[in-house]
Amino acid sequence: MPKLIQISDCHIDDQPMVMGVDSQHNLQLVAQRIKEIESDGVLISGDLTHQGTLNSYQTLKEILRPIKQPIFVIGGNHDQADNLEKIFKKSLFKSFKLANWEIINIDSVQAKKTHGLVTQSALLELDQACLNSDAAHIMIVLHHPIVPMNSSWDDALSLTNPQDLFQVLDKHSKIRLITFGHAHEAAEFSHLGITILSCPSTALQFNQAPLKGALKRKNRIGFNELELNENGTINFKTQWI
Ligand SMILES: [Fe+2]
């Protein structure tokens, strides 16, 4: 069955230290782990870099070099579209297929704004992509959370028009999974039988309070493993390092 590794919010910068952590070292730790896992690809759900410099994308590419699987990338609010495209052109996608699944990217990023918005044209594009898909099952990926995170995360920084997005999503019965990053935390929700997953950051998590024991650490970093089954069910697990 197809399997994707999802990482998010790597926040690589020109210097190692970002937001009080060494985001380059943390991504190296994640890369070492995921290169050992058999998968069909590594999906990065935005904020590859902290400030979008060309150098930071090159550093990121270098850190990911041990990973031999195909890499699929979408941008986040911290990314700079031109620089991202210069270094990761082959990895950027609107949609791609894995067995009887189609993975569709929705652009939710607004220039120079932290919160997200799905424009009318992006909604139309999504509607068409779902209508035209000959896959049995659809997975959607975007950068911004589409549901309240029920945490210390400020939901005002998430997608500002989730109701517009759900109007389109609810028309399409093939959608099984929606996943995003941006909130720097792992979380699981559901909506009318659709699984909704938040992917943790490879740099640091913002939300420390609700967690207990070993997981309540500042340097907690992780990634998602997603198995997309032929019958449309999903097995998923967040792996912490
Ligand atoms: Fe973000």
Summary keywords:
241 residues, Purple Acid Phosphatase, chain A, domain 2, six-stranded mixed sheet, five-stranded mixed sheet, 13 strands, binds fe (ii) ion
Topology at a glance:
Blueprint: E1 3-7, E2 17-18, E3 21-22, H1 23-34, E4 41-45, H2 54-63, E5 71-74, H3 81-88, E6 95-98, E7 101-105, H4 120-132, E8 137-141, H5 162-169, E9 175-180, E10 187-191, E11 194-198, E12 222-228, E13 234-240
Parallel strand pairs: 1-4, 4-5, 7-8, 8-9, 9-11
Antiparallel strand pairs: 1-12, 2-3, 6-7, 10-11, 12-13
Helix pairs in contact: 2-3, 4-5
The structure holds fe (ii) ion.
The site of fe (ii) ion has 7 residues, from loops.
Family: Belongs to the cyclic nucleotide phosphodiesterase class-III family.
Domain Calcineurin-like phosphoesterase: 3-185
Protein name: 3',5'-cyclic-nucleotide phosphodiesterase
Give me the CATH fold name. Answer: Purple Acid Phosphatase, chain A, domain 2
Report the portion of residues in β strands: 25-35%
Task: Report the bound ligands by name, code or SMILES.
Answer: fe (ii) ion
Give a quick account of the main beta sheet: strands, pairing sense, barrel closure: 6 strands, mixed
Count of distinct strands: 13
CATH superfamily: Metallo-dependent phosphatases
Molecular shape: globular
Task: Just name the CATH architecture.
Answer: 4-Layer Sandwich
Mean pLDDT: 95
Instruction: State the helicity in percent bands.
Output: 10-25%
**Overall tally of domains:** 1
Instruction: Indicate the CATH class.
Output: Alpha Beta
> Helical stretch count?
5
State the order of secondary-structure elements, H for helix, E for strand: EEEHEHEHEEHEHEEEEE
Low-confidence stretches: none
- Major β-sheet strand ordering: 6-7-8-9-11-10
End-to-end gap: 25 Å
Rg value: 17 Å
Category by helix and strand content: alpha/beta
Family: Belongs to the cyclic nucleotide phosphodiesterase class-III family.
Pfam family, one: Metallophos
GO molecular function: hydrolase activity; metal ion binding
Protein name: 3',5'-cyclic-nucleotide phosphodiesterase
